[in-house]
Amino acid sequence: MSLLELHGVSKRFGGLMANQDVSFSVEAGQIAGLIGPNGAGKTTAFNCVAGFYAPTEGKILLDGQVISGLPPEACARAGIGRTFQVARTFVSMTACENVMTGALMRNRSVAAARSEARQWLAFVGLDHFADKPAGSMTISEQRRLAVARALATAPKLLLMDEVMAGLNPSEVREMVKVVLAIRDRGIACLIVEHVLEGIMPIADKIVVLDRGVKIADGTPSEVSRDPQVIHAYLGDE
Amino acid sequence: MMTNPLKKGRALPAVGGLVALAAVLLPVVTHSPSHLNLAILVLMTAQLGVAWNLLGGYAGQVSLGHVAFYGIGSYTSTLLLLNFGLNPWLGMLAGGLLAALLSLGFGWSCFRLKGHYFAMATIAVAEIVQIVFTNWEYAGAAVGLTIPMDQRGWGAMVFADKAPYYWLALGLLALTLGATWAVERSHIGYYLRAIKDEPDAARSVGVNISRYKQIALSLSAFFTAMGGSLYAQKELYIDPGSVLTTALSIKMALVSILGGVGTLFGPVVGSVVLTTIEEVTRATFGGTGRGTDTIVYAALIVGIAVFYPSGLIGWFREWRQRRQAQQAGTGKPAKNVDEKVDEKAEVAA
Hints:
The complex is a heterodimer of chains A (237) and B (349).
Chain A: E1 4-13, E2 16-26, E3 31-35, H1 42-49, E4 57-62, E5 65-66, H2 72-78, E6 80-82, H3 95-103, H4 110-123, H5 139-151, E7 157-161, H6 169-184, E8 188-192, H7 196-199, E9 205-210, E10 213-218, H8 220-225, H9 227-234
Chain B: H1 11-29, H2 33-58, H3 67-84, H4 88-110, H5 115-134, E1 145-146, H6 163-185, H7 187-197, H8 199-204, H9 209-235, E2 237-238, H10 240-243, H11 246-259, H12 266-285, H13 292-307, H14 311-329, H15 333-348
Helix pairs in contact in B: 1-6, 2-6, 2-9, 2-11, 2-12, 3-4, 3-9, 4-9, 6-7, 6-9, 7-9, 11-12, 11-14, 12-13
């Protein structure tokens, strides 16, 4: 049994089939990348896993429990943490309070949440910003803050949506370090990514979507040799 | 090391303590009924603003129908008193609890909508409540209800002079502030701010946003209704035009917005400024009979909104931050002297 399993997941928006019969799995402690050209349905699949969409068809299981159709807050309790394409920082709070809000899910004590939040801030390298208004942080810092906030819910699987997009090379390296450290803690990561040079070297597995359909699934080197993938990314010769 | 109690960081609690003490002693100092009446109005409006702020400020759900709860509070305690002889202290509690219960229906119908549409729906609900009471014979319909003055004193919550009402209003304000303070510091406070800032992100960290919005609404309704009961006991007369008017809903929002939404004392500051402006303009321009007072009042509100968009508390915080930044930048004159003295003392020791 894998940690996360998608079985024939389809999502339809009116006449648009955003995901069609998508199946793949993520093992515990694995880094999996979900890639594909624009409009491939990556974020839709992601939102189905996180509970923001209910799949039109198919089933999603976490640790053998069906989670498809549950609302986002129930998915979070089941063990799915997530970040968004835009950081969605709680701007009226400090950095520490942002992470505390995540930590409060498992433990209602504010004092306990505060000390936990400090640890996660240190984990993503933001400990010196703890009391800074979160809205005044840079994009790269807010991305890492969002990761810390999601980690504070003690997830089994962390979903990261374009966590490296728009970052400069040194910021990408920093984020890669964070992702590897998360995996070392035994938390699986499913990463939607456009920045292939960030994800390819660290992923244990890559799933490729194109026009809502899964076209490849395997190790990064297998996938990058796949003619269908090359076709989807580069088009015809 | 000697510490100056008025030094940075300690000045605020010290000033706050003095203000609270002055507030408690005010009726002892002034015996002018008109001054005391203004002070009671300030406190009662502040209390409503603080209650409104729980939902509108912290959770960011702007309600323009809160007068419905105010009316329910005042009618519940008054009807229970007139028909069953129930003590108004218990009536006040009953009104608060009934409003909190009815707020489930209010939330159920209005929370489906977001932003401006939520605000519009709350107006509609309050209008419906007003129409119901205007046509409900048992509740006095349009004529209203009068509380008899035959029993007086703290037990009956009816007084001939103003001072006890002042202390009641102050006590209710303190209670509402205390509850807000407790909410602010608990996980609920964090969740409400998260819902206001980024509802989707709040859900992603396990916050059931419908539940927490409803918690904020029920608490807010409870305290708003208690304010309504106090009004009924103070005026000894209620009708739909006085306790169910939309203008009052707007005022609850206005004092919070002007003072600073989502801050503990914002509505209190807002009420002091707004109620004073309202009464002063009425006293100064009210005699013309052409609504000059309302025009001046409205112009002042627009002025505050334009020049202090983050509210008066927000403006004060920004000003303090700027001043601290300036002091840090120009070699911290006052602080440096202190430190040098301390160093010398240490060397001498």
